[in-house]
Structures are given as C-alpha cells and as structure tokens.
Amino acid sequence: MPRATRSQRPSETQQPATQNARAGRSRRRQVSDEEEEEENSAESEGGERGMDVDSGAEGGDGDEVHLETRQEIRRKANNLVRLALFNEQKRMPLRREEISKKILAGNSRAFNHVFTLAQEKLRSTFGIEFVELPSRAGLDQELNGDAGEDELNDARKATGMKKKTASLLSKTYILRSTLSPILIEHACVTDEKVLEEEIADAPSDIEDEDQDEDDAERHPKSYGALLSWSTADQLGELGILYVILALVLVSGRVISDVDLRAHLKRLRLPSIPSSHPIHHTAISTTRSLSTDAFLSNLLKQGFLDRQQVGDAGKSTNKGKGKRVRTQAEDADEGRMYEWRWGPRAHCEVGEEGIGKFVAEFMVNGGLDTGDGEEGDEGGEGSREERKKQEELLARMTKGVERAAGGKLAEVR
Asked: Which of 139, 133, 132 is nearest to 166 (CA)?
C-alpha cells in the first residue's frame, strides 16, 4: 500500500485548527442552549407574574424611552385608554396586535411604557384596570394542577430532552373593576331621592298606554341606585349569560351542545332562526337577538369556549368562527360540540361567584326557608331562620361543588 505523501498528511497546524473549530462549535451550541433556557425561564416568570407588561417601566427598557418623547407616550396612552373603553362598550377583548397597529403605529418597543401609563390612568380615573386573559394551556394547567409534572421532569432528565414551555397568557386584555365589593354593594342600594329624580328625568312616553308592550319593556328601568346598571349594561343578556355559565358549571364544567340547547328551550330560548327571544333596552342599536347569535357573541367576547368532539371532530374546532351554526346544520353534517367556560368568564365572574349565585337563587327564590310565615319587610327573620338559611346556603354550595367535580375556583 503506498504511503501517504506529505501533502496528503494533516499538517501540525491543521490538527489544532480542526480541534479549535470543533471546540468553537460546541461552545456556540452550549451558549445557544443557555440562551434558550434563559428565554424559557423568563417567559415562565412573566407568566407567574400575570402580566409582563408592567415590568418594562422600571428597568430593562431604559434606552427605548428615548425613542418617544414623554408627550408622545402620554398622547398614545390616552389613545389607548379611549380604545380600551370603546372595546369594553362592545364587550370585546383587546388584542396586543390591535394596540400595536392602532396606537403604536408598529413601534412595539414602546408598548410597555404606553401600557403602564394607560393602566395608571384607568385605575385612578375610572376604577378599572387591564387584565390579561389566560390562554387555553394556562387554563388547563390551572384547573388540572401539577399532576404528573414530576414524572414528566424525571423523563426529561433521563432522555436529555428540554422542557418546552407553552405560553400561559394570550396577549389579549379586558377591563375589570378595581372597586371593593363592599363599595359596589352599598352603591347598589336603592335611594328614594335618587329614584324620584330618575323617574322625573325619564321620558314621558314610557308610561303611554297606547305604546306596545314590547317597546315598554325595552326602556331602561329605574332602580334609584348610584350605579345605574340598566343604562350601562344589557341586564337581560347578563342574566342569560349567568344562567348558561351555571348550567355548564353544574354539568361537570362541560356540557354538550344538545343538552345546552335543551335547557335553553325550557327557558323559552329556542334555537330557531326566525325567533329572537333575547331583547335589548332602547339604548341598544340592536333590538333583539336570536339564541344562536347570542351564543356567537359569547364566543367572540371570551365568555364561552366551544370544541368539536366525536368522529367528525378529529380536527378540533375551538369555536373561533364568525357564527355558531344552527342545531339543524350540525345534525345534518354529523357534528357534535361541547361547551366550556371561556377565559373571560374565569377572569370576570369566577366559579365561586356563579356557585354563590346558584345557591342564593335556590335558597331565597325556590325554597321555603321559614316556618311557613314570611319574614320582615327587609327580608330578615329571626335568628333561627337566618341560621337555617345559612345552613341551606352552605349545603347548596357544597352541592354545586360536587356537581362541578371539584372545588370552585376564585376569580382568576
């Protein structure tokens, strides 16, 4: 076998170069792995804090402040407040992409500073604040807990695989009140003077005898309270929403589309295109809605989530379409759906709130809590009657927990 010539042999300078190249590649690979771990840890820490947008005003983005003058940031913060209030009037969540497009004109690096200033204005002026909605992965992790997390970590260590952290936040925001529940409760108490002024300021055609009954029902009702619910919200829609959330909760936190529509039909809310059983007050531009249109609005607003199941639902449908298909259309095509709470319901209402709503309604509205005699005019009976009522409320709340399949979660 011929010996290798001098030109074919690796020179002494080539051998260290090859080793250095290999060492350089390994170092670069190690550095990239460390950077990836730091990014994942930063994302997980941001998810635990709830919102990562408030941290940018204190540090880390100091150089970016110079991109915008203080007056420009203040102007954009005011525009963000207006946009948030406009979206809340429609009960629609606000996406970060929409903020960057309409407020920041594509300069997303100034988001933290503009958002923080707008958050301060909302809290100090209106008593509301931005709340970032969780993603579906975040909700599932919170509801299911950390079951099986230790086994997964052990498996990753054994195989050398790295943990892929899913985003727990959706970069979508809603407005939520910061007022104390006690303050809201006192502000909802009827005041006779306020009630007289509201009746005096009401339009004179409300009590017109020649007016149609449907039109009379659509006028806002006067309650004489500091918080005027009837002129700011559609109480009919809000009541139906709470009933739907209660039905989903007591059905084990998930209900089939067939069962939900059967319950709504018993409440005279049929899924018929020609029927519009959900009426609005006169302050709304939409006179009434069908049941399918109302469910579509709840999907868009984030109160409900719908998923396709069964053989026809191998490609999971998250219910993000423009409208809810009618029950007849789903039956013809063999589709089956399930309804769950959406992220907004967890952040705005909470399972404990709906559980309390169901318990109080069943005890105060459907059961006889006394000895066959009515209590005082203020709704307060003797101590024994109040004690019985509290016991009934406690038992009813536990019954709701058993029906839901576990402890009721607080507002997220």
From this structure: 139
Which CATH architecture group holds 55-147+170-179?
Orthogonal Bundle (1.10)
The residues, ordered by sequence, that sit 6+ positions from 325 with a Cβ below 8 Å of its Cβ are 292, 335
Range of lowest pLDDT (7-16, 305-314, 377-386): 7-16
pLDDT at 200: 84
Alpha-helix runs per DSSP H in 122-271: 136-144, 149-159, 181-187, 192-201, 213-217, 229-232, 235-250, 257-266
Confidence bin at 369 (pLDDT 50/70/90): very low
CB 409 within 8 A of CB 351: yes
Residue 119 in tokens:
């958050």
Q: How far is CA 319 from CA 56, 244, 295, 341, 342, in A?
A: 34, 16, 11, 12, 11
Domain ranges of the chain: 55-147+170-179, 233-348, 351-372+379-404
Predicted confidence band at 49 (pLDDT cuts at 50, 70, 90)? very low
Query: What is the rounded CA–CA span in Å between residue 318 and residue 331?
Result: 18
Q: What is the CB neighbour count within 10 angstroms for residue 386?
A: 13
